[in-house]
Specification:
about 55% strand; alpha+beta; 2 domains
């Protein structure tokens, strides 16, 4: 009987010690938590691109990206700004506002990532808003980011923008350089 009481007492003491030890750990002492917090980031970027259709010469734009980091590896994004597709000669350029949402997945050293965004490209300049429809926009890319710098290379496709032969659907390969910070 005394042995049974001693065993029960030891089990309760061990359980209490384990529980106290688990609750006594501070989260800031955890290296993973100390190195990275969930939260919002804001970035301002400049974009330059090469068009995939002969009707356009090149592209230039700027954007603002709001990003929420779920953890060190996965983030969601909301991006908007202004992009101008330079056409050249006597034809007016096509300017549009991209509005896109997506996600980033960091896969190497928590700095290299893949990005996928989709949304709309809304024509706003040179009377194109009357002749060119708002386009579905899809944009996969790869990039590198640290605490303040974000460099990415992406492909963007606009399914409703006119091509040189009168069809629809053009794209660009763009380089984005951005400054970002934690909110």
């Amino acid at each position: 009987m005394k042995t049974s009481v001693k065993i029960k007492g030891l089990m309760i003491a061990a359980f209490a010690a384990l529980t106290f030890n688990a609750n006594a750990q501070d989260k800031p002492d955890n290296p993973a938590a100390a190195n990275y917090d969930q939260g919002w980031r804001l970035g301002f970027g400049l974009n330059a691109g090469v068009m995939t259709d002969d009707a356009y010469d090149w592209a230039l734009g700027g954007d603002v990206r709001l990003q929420y980091d779920f953890n060190r590896r996965v983030s969601v994004t909301l991006t908007s700004g202004f992009t101008n597709l330079f056409i050249g000669d006597d034809v007016k350029d096509l300017g549009f506002i991209p509005v896109k949402g997506g996600f980033k997945v960091f896969w190497w050293e928590d700095q290299f990532y893949v990005l996928a965004e989709a949304g709309a490209a809304i024509p706003v300049t040179n009377d194109y808003s009357d002749t060119v429809d708002t386009s579905f926009l899809v944009s996969p890319g790869i990039g590198w980011a640290n605490e303040i710098l974000d460099v990415s290379l992406r492909y963007e496709h606009y399914n409703a923008f006119p091509t040189a032969d009168g069809d629809k659907g053009v794209g660009q390969v763009a380089l984005r350089l951005a400054y970002g910070f934690r909110l």
